[in-house]
Structure formats: structure tokens, C-alpha cells
Specification:
The protein is of the alpha+beta class. The chain is built from 1 helix and 2 strands. It has a two-stranded antiparallel sheet with strand order 1-2. Strand 1 and strand 2 (9-13) form a beta hairpin.
Amino acid sequence: MASTVTSGSLVYERRVVEKIHKYHWPAVQLNVWMLIMLISAGVIIGVFSAFIEIQNTLLLPVPWYVFPHILPTGHFHRA
């Protein structure tokens, strides 16, 4: 919004939007993009879970980037 100060008062002017652009994705392109995003998310989760599994196998704590008093110690180790 545009505003102007005139003799101690504030006046707002409304801007009228001429046309809202809507973009249409072709169905095949959208499906391929969604598939790529789902595969990428799966790979990221898989790599992270493999890292956690290796850390648990070696009986090492997981190096979380949080303050130490938030996570209980030994919470992620298997008995």
C-alpha cells in the first residue's frame, strides 16, 4: 500500500491489481517433478537413517546440533 502524510494524518491509497497470473503445469511435467521430489526426499531420509544405524552399531552418540541439556544421554543406544 502506498501512504502519504498530509497535515498530521496518514492517507492510504489502494492499488488495483489488473490481472492475476495463474500458471498451468502440464500433467506429465508435474508428475515427473513430484516423482523427483519424492525420490530425493527418500534418499535424504535413507542416508540419515543409515548414519543413525552406524552410530548405534558403534555405540556412539548421535551428534545432534542442539543444546546438551535438551536430549537425555544414552537415549538412542540400543540395549
